[in-house]
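Archive record:
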Amino acid sequence: MKYKAYRLTIDQLLAEGKTSGNDHSEFMLEYTKMNVHRMNRLDKSLVLNEEVLTTLMQLQKAYKFLVLTEAWCGDASQIVPVFNKIEEYSNGKIELDLIWRDQNLEIMDRYLTNGGRAIPKLVVIDKQSNEEIASWGPRPVLAQELMTELKKDSSLGMAEISEKLHYWYAKDRTQSTQKELLELLRTLN
C-alpha cells in the first residue's frame, strides 16, 4: 500500500479498537497511538538533508522501496516517514510500497535481524530488472547498538527500553537514518 493508505488504515484500525497484526491488546493499541503522534510530527517537520536530495536528483534508474512494517512498531514510526519523504523528492525514481510484516512472513523470514523479525525492513528492487539489489533496517546502526545494550539489562522492561530508544530517536532527528540511507542511495547509481 502507499503511505497515505498506510496512515489511513492505521487510523481506521484504531477507530475500531484495533492495530495491525494479531495482537489488539491495550498495550499494542497504546503503542500504535503513540506511533501516530510520532508520524504526524515527522510528516510535518522532517527535512531531508541536502546530500540526500542531491543524490536523489542524480538517480538514473527507477527503484521500488518495499518496506515490511506494522502500525504498532515504534521504529517504523520513526523511519517510514523518512522513506515517504525520499519517495516524495525522488522525481518518480523511488516508488514506496508498504506491506504488513505479519501478513507476509514468507518475505519477512528472508530478512531476519539476529534471528528475529525486526522491522521496518527495506528491500530495494530495480524496477527495470525486478531484481532485489539492497536491503536495510530495521533501524540505524547506532539505534541497533543501543537496543542490543538495553536488552542486556535485565532490570529494564519493554516500556523502559522503548522510552530510551525513542529518546535517542528524538535527539537524533532522523540524521542517522538519513546518513545510512544516503549511503544506500549512492550505491544505486
Remarks:
- The longest strand covers residues 63-69.
- The domain at 3-186 is CATH 3.40.30.10 (Glutaredoxin).
- The radius of gyration is 16 Å.
- The chain has a mean pLDDT of 96.
